[in-house]
């Protein structure tokens, strides 16, 4: 039987630079969706990914849904 509380959850990663820059030409910041294991990484996930708005590799932070 499957457990009611899954260990893998879907999270949203948002660009740190785009979310802080309110005066940018792009109305929304760049976002990625991915999964993480709740048991192995209980803290918020931080990854370095490519941002299409900034045109460079930036830090992406996990955000609340």
Give the helix/strand layout.
Elements: E1 8-15, H1 16-20, E2 31-37, E3 46-51, E4 56-63
Antiparallel strand pairs: 1-2, 1-4, 3-4
GO molecular function, one term: structural constituent of ribosome
Family: Belongs to the bacterial ribosomal protein bL33 family.
Subcellular location: Plastid, Chloroplast
Could you characterize what this model shows?
By secondary structure, the chain is mostly beta strands. The protein has one helix spanning 16-20, and strands spanning 8-15, 31-37, 46-51, 56-63. It has a single domain, classed as Single Sheet (Rubrerythrin, domain 2), CATH 2.20.28. The chain is 8% helix and 45% strand. The longest helix is centred in the N-terminal third of the chain and has 5 residues, at 16-20. The two termini are 28 Å apart. The mean pLDDT is 85.
Short note summarizing the structure:
By secondary structure, this protein is mainly β. Helices cover 8% and strands 45% of the residues. The chain is elongated, with a radius of gyration of 14 Å.
């Amino acid at each position: 039987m499957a457990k009611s509380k899954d260990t893998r959850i879907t999270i949203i990663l948002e660009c740190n630079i785009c979310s802080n820059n309110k005066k940018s030409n792009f109305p929304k910041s760049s976002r990625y969706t991915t999964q993480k294991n709740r048991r192995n990484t209980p803290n918020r996930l931080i990854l370095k990914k490519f941002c299409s708005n900034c045109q460079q590799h930036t830090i992406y932070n996990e955000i609340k849904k």
